[in-house]
Amino acid sequence: MTNPWTDIKNTDLVIVMGGNAAEAHPCGFKWVTEAKAHRGAKLIVVDPRFTRTASVADYYAPIRPGSDIVFLMAAINWMIQNDKVQWEYVRNYTNAALIVKDEFGWQDGLFSGYDPEKRDYDKSSWDYVIGDDGFAAIDMTLENPRCVWNLLKDHVSRYTPELVEQVCGTPKDRFLKIVQMIGECSATDKAMTSMYALGWTQHSKGAQNIRGMAMLQLILGNIGVRGGGMNALRGHSNIQGLTDIGLMSNLIPGYLNIPTEKEADWTTYMSSRQFKPLRPGQTSYWQNYPKFMVSFMKSMWGSAATAENDWAYDWLPKLDVPAYDVLRMFELMNAGQITNYFCQGFNPILAFPNRGKVTAALSKLKLLVTMDPLETETAHFWENHGEYNDVDTASIQTEVIELPTTSFAEDDGSLVNSGRWLQWHWAAGTPPGQAQRDTWIMAQIFQRVRKLYQDEGGVLPEPILNLTWDYADPLDPTAEELAKEMNGRALADVYDLTDKTKLVAAQGKQLANFGQYRDDGSTMGGCWIFAGCWTEDGNIMARRDNSDPDDTGTYLNWSFSWPMNRRILYNRASADLEGKAWDPARKLIEWNGEKWEGYDVPDISPTAKPGDVGPFIMNQEGMSRLFTRGLMRDGPFPTHMEPFESPIPNVFNEKMVGNPVARVFVSDAEQFGTSDEFPFVATSYRLTEHFHYWTKHNRINAALQPEFFVEISPELAAEKGIAKGGTVRVWSKRGSITAKALVSRRLRPLQCGDKLVHVIGIPLHWGFMGAARKGFGPNSLTPFVGDANIETPEYKAFLVNIEPATTEAVS
Amino acid sequence: MMARRIYSQSGDHIETTAPVTVSRYRGFTRANHWVTAASLIVLLLSGMALFHPSLYFLTALFGGGQVTRWLHPFVGILLFLSFLILFLQLWRLNLPRPEDATWVSHIGDVVRGEEEKLPELGKYNAGQKFIFWGMSALIVVLIGSGVMIWEQYFPQLVSIPVRRVAVLVHSLAAVAIILIFILHVYAAIWTRGTLRAMTRGTVTGGWAWRHHRKWLRELAGREKRDPAE
Amino acid sequence: MTTDPNVDSPRTAVSNPPIQPMKANLGAGDVMRASAMPDLAPPERELTPVAKLIDVSKCIGCKACQSACAEWNDTVPEIEHNVGMYENPHDLTPDMFTLMRFTEYDNPDTGEFEWLIRKDGCMHCADPGCLKACPAPGAIVQYTNGIVDFIHDNCIGCGYCVTGCPFNIPRVSKADHKSYKCTLCSDRVAVGQGPACAKACPTQAIVFGTKEDMLTHAEARVEDLKSRGYDNAGIYDPEGVGGTHVFYVLHHADKPALYSNLPEAPRISPVVEGWKGATKTVGLAAIGLAAVGSILHGLLGRANQVSAAEEHEAEELVERSERDA
Amino acid sequence: MNIDLSRRGFMKLAGAGVAATSLGAMGFGEAEAAEAAHVRAFKLASTTEVRNTCTYCSVACGILIYSKGDVAAGEKAEIVHIEGDADHPTNRGTLCPKGAALKDTVHAQTRLTEPRIRRPGADRFESISWDEALDKIARALKDDRDTNMILQNDAGVTVNRWTTTGFLAASATTNETAWLTYKTVRAMGIVGFDNQARV
């Protein structure tokens, strides 16, 4: 989230699209009801189902799963056509005025440079015209036909209300009512907030869905302001933290990258990370990349990482593919190429698509290790549970070790919420039986491996033997020690970069913020963006001062928010070119003549003069990007792409299936179904009574929503002769499930052109372990394909068929 | 001449001649009657306890409110069955006859005890018949409404509005049956020589002559016609 | 953190629960009415009436109230089946004192589809039908702050409260044969905490405070709803039962029945009134009179006795019939 | 008037019948004293209060955990109740249906209490000691790493990549756990590394 949960109370209009906040994040949604009650804010919900969020909405519109880009581009088109644009913001704070290469273009649903063989684009044409001065060419009048604004205008011109009705199945009048409501927020004294979640990410073009709304928000001038923003509600309690710390195939903490094979050495790796400003005088903060990278390497290998050995660059793995993401790993596993696999608090056979494939893959492992407080389906994947897990136990040769871990209530530490707050918590209970903290387990495993290398030697022992492990008890590091390590520490006296005599951090002291990070090896820090969370002042994450001057909702003294305790990202953009708040009633930070000050920590150098330095300091342009250059694999603008399994062909190019650059493994391509065999669109989602596959272990939540069901419209029920509460069979090309039928008018058949599209809702909370009745999850049916940029599986739009079940499901 | 009984039933007979005693109820019938009577009293006490706060203390007789709550309906079933058997034995002679009308019209003489002004009667007079039919009807009403409000076993049997009517009907019927019960007991006591009919099973000839002369005549008549009996 | 009602919805949880032992501020001395105890001593003091407001228009049907209720009251609702609806458990039970009820409604006036969700549970009537119907002294009490509570030590499980309740709330346990319903968390209120459901409610659709404050807040909510086109928005605080200490804000106050058959004009059924009123007194009087009457008649009146002459007549009759033989 | 025997007999009987009503009328009912009205004892009295964060979604509601016993003081602590933290800016004491029932997850019947192993082909788990389990894991890691570590690619570039062992990290663990996990996994060269953020 760009803004904290508590800021939502400052909004005038909430649009929930690609999410279901009331249901999945009820306590955060409280701030929507506060905004409604005390600001007279309105709530719009656009969703295939009339959700619990819709039940308290001012206006609702249905949409066909997987057609969001059409809706969003049409909204942008309407804003442009009806002059609902925050012009000063667009001209100065976005790259609208920058000139794009003549070679860039779009036709038949594809951008310039597409190679069907590689299923990839040559992105060289997707860039600015760079002038002789080395800066991007610009036309502040926005008259140049090749400026981003005019290209965007042309790009979205195809997306009309009629096209929305035809592709999304959203009635034209409903679409128009919604864009009118949105349009009002282009005024400087009105703000709209976007709340979205997996309803947008779990598509083969998920990232583009989100870009679509981000662009709309920029055009309305709603990024960086109170009550505005792009708010990804996020899932697990620390999903933000694990992303920040980069527990992903290709990441290094703080959004740095694991090198690829092409980056054979440190110099090459750094050469592509100079991040030279593309406009004069811009910050381009990523120029500090080396400081963060070197400090990370020092936190890993300490004194063994030196300038001479390029900070032990060789010890970092180099990728031959963009990432060994879970889909790729299970593809390899299924091909028998994986030996050992660890699931730390993860339940793949319910979480990953095409459960049949996942189970087959796990069966080919030599060793599976699970670490969890609860009995997971994955740990029991080899156990036969009748129709709910029909496996041949004896033939499964995988050895499974199930390790009992503590729960949240039994350990100390911090979690990062979706508003980027790092909040510390304390253990309250004694762990049951022999359960142990994950930190203890990881330390035990590592120390034992290290001992083996010490005693026996082996392949490449150095990174293991030299890993920094200076904890009081090497077999049980404390949360405090680890938090301090992430914050960063001075390894030598650190002096001010401009005033070399000024000591900023003495050797051995905790660093106050990432401004004190150095690239000369004098500092170490595991996760630069967390710098400031545990300083010489102590544990900043444990702060509990809930005072909030003037009720802005920033709560600066409550815990710690990365980066730099900043609560609203891009908050510089909440003020105009003179540094005055666009909306005085919603002042956040302002320029007082010498520096920026206000209710939040400025997201810009405190002394950076307004007008000189753009608000989007992480970008080389100093501006936000309506046109993303080559940064996304599937286009610099979002363009409509159907899901891989779609009831109707792509209106721009009927030969185009799904996302043209999404990675598809051969075996999976054969498992895509077509609408003649599978006429109905299915979408998966959470219910408010449950959290993923955990609360089915809890007797109370199990009682509140006891048994697996699917939701269908009365029309479909009638067509198929399905009775309310009856049992149905739902199947796709990849699997079949049985469920109770919940027939509800909250699902409407959608008229898409001449095709009537029925949507089937499939919640995801049931399995074969725990207190609730045994059931299935949507992943038994979903396709094994992910987003073209980040490989998030397509759970939200796929094809199935349905019929009344002949035999009642036993449960 | 026929041997058909009109005013008496098999088992009724002259037991001794000097002095004359007449067998009115055989042992089984008497036992049956007292079981019914006992359960009616238990029901009366437990029912009253739950009927009026000032009588709640009666639950102490049964070991508290919870016991009273579950005991009452079971005894109710016992009463129902026991009375059913009694009913099968007595219903025929309780059918109304012409002389009953005359009897009712002379109710004043009844209360004054001037029976010489009354017609001769069979085994039962109109008053007794009223008690018999009244009890029968009310017991049916009580068992019916009782089951409808039997929370422990039939909470869902009827809708709550019906249940409300049932509980009202049950209490009204209960009041009625208690009044009849009092009348029954009192009449039995006021009319001397009656109690022994349900204790020893016999009444004196005089009692029979005074209150149920047709019944006595029939029995006397039967003595000579078929001594075999 | 602000607590300004203009910036903020009323806060049920203004402070966290105490953990030091403290005396309950709600006890026998605060009882204003008790079942089957007509001659109850008057309360020692008058507490400020409290109320729980349920703003149906803010409710997202998340069931946090059900969850918090079960946790606080240590009940374990049964894990049932899905029968094609969102209500789970399917009805109030002795282990589930409150329940979200869901209604799908096509609004004929606006043409919009609405999903009406109502939290069902004890309304804590000012004139409680359960208390009136209950035959067990002190099994149901009403405190001066308006809370109607069941004292289970006195409950006999007869189910009369079920018959008496105009809202069909109490449920008698098959396990211990005692009747259960929402206590308005009397144990929490007694130490200055709001009910568990109100504290948990994510959108503060459920708020708890003095009845006066809650009414003021409710009126403001009604205004907001009217401004959003709900012309018939209003407060549901039924007069028929003397008002309630759990009351609703409804978008369609003119049609309460839309919300899973919320009674239009609830009141204690005349049948129950008749039963617990006239019948009780008149019936008892009649019985008393009959009994006493018969005694007096027995004492003063002349018994109906058989004369020696009649015995003689009988003997003659018998002899005669034998002679004839 | 003369009261004969039978009349006295009558009175005995009648007495019983009347007793009930008259006694009641005399207010004997009150003799049956009811249990005095009382509210349930406040169950958080004398518990230890600990501040924590809800483990479910990333709204990260503040919660209060009440236990008998105090872990901070090194005592054995049994969690008896969990509810929202009224001081928390985001949730202000409120909790969703999951958060409100957190205690039941902590005490779930399916909580794991000992390390277990399922041997190849076996149809059940069997107990195993921590030491044995951890040694087995360490050995399996080393053997696979030594066999399958890719030191260089075909072009002779040093890649030091280990692709045959994978690790899924948990998005509900703390940052501190995540960091220790990161160090361990990366130091060994594992690239098959992911967490729930992917799905």
TrEMBL record, chain A:
InterPro entries: Asp_de-COase-like_dom_sf, Formate-DH-alph_fdnG, MoPterin_dinucl-bd_dom, Mopterin_OxRdtase. It comes from the Bacteria. One of its GO terms (cellular component) is periplasmic space. Pfam families: Molybdopterin (PF00384), Molydop_binding (PF01568). The keyword Metal-binding applies. SUPFAM superfamilies: ADC-like, Formate dehydrogenase/DMSO reductase, domains 1-3. The keyword Iron-sulfur applies. CDD domains: MopB_CT_Formate-Dh-Na-like. One of its GO terms (molecular function) is electron transfer activity. Its cofactor is [4Fe-4S] cluster. It is found in: Periplasm. GO terms for biological process: anaerobic respiration. Residues 1-381 form the Molybdopterin oxidoreductase domain. Belongs to the prokaryotic molybdopterin-containing oxidoreductase family. This is Formate dehydrogenase (Quinone-dependent) catalytic subunit.
TrEMBL record, chain B:
One of its GO terms (biological process) is anaerobic respiration. Residues 24-201 form the Cytochrome b561 bacterial/Ni-hydrogenase domain. InterPro entries: Cyt_b561_bac/Ni-Hgenase, Di-haem_cyt_TM, FDH_cytochrome_b556_subunit, Formate_DH_gsu. Its main location: membrane. Signal peptide: none annotated. Belongs to the formate dehydrogenase gamma subunit family. This is Formate dehydrogenase subunit gamma. The lineage of its organism: Bacteria, Pseudomonadati, Pseudomonadota, Alphaproteobacteria, Rhodobacterales.
TrEMBL record, chain C:
It comes from the Bacteria. The keyword Metal-binding applies. [4Fe-4S] cluster 4 binds at C134, C155, C158, C161. InterPro entries: 4Fe4S_Fe-S-bd, 4Fe4S_Fe_S_CS, FDH_Electron_Transfer_Unit, Formate_DH_bsu_Proteobacteria, Formate_DH_Fe-S_su, Formate_DH_TM. [4Fe-4S] cluster 3 binds at C122, C125, C130, C165. Keywords: 4Fe-4S, Cell membrane, Electron transport, Iron, Iron-sulfur, Membrane, Metal-binding, Repeat, Transmembrane, Transport. It is found in: Cell membrane. The keyword Cell inner membrane does not apply. GO terms for cellular component: plasma membrane. Its cofactor is [4Fe-4S] cluster. Its main location: membrane. Binds 4 [4Fe-4S] clusters per subunit. GO terms for molecular function: 4 iron, 4 sulfur cluster binding; metal ion binding. This is Formate dehydrogenase (Quinone-dependent) iron-sulfur subunit.
UniProtKB/TrEMBL annotation, chain D:
One of its GO terms (cellular component) is cell envelope. GO terms for molecular function: 4 iron, 4 sulfur cluster binding; electron transfer activity; molybdenum ion binding; oxidoreductase activity. Its cofactor is Mo-bis(molybdopterin guanine dinucleotide); [4Fe-4S] cluster. Belongs to the prokaryotic molybdopterin-containing oxidoreductase family. The keyword Metal-binding applies. Its main location: other. This is Formate dehydrogenase (Quinone-dependent) catalytic subunit. It comes from the Bacteria. Keywords: 4Fe-4S, Iron, Iron-sulfur, Metal-binding, Molybdenum, Oxidoreductase. SMART domains: Molybdop_Fe4S4. Residues 47-110 form the 4Fe-4S Mo/W bis-MGD-type domain. InterPro entries: Mopterin_OxRdtase, Mopterin_OxRdtase_4Fe-4S_dom, MopterinOxRdtase_cofactor_BS, TAT_signal, TAT_signal_bac_arc. It is found in: Cell envelope. The keyword Transport does not apply. GO terms for biological process: anaerobic respiration.
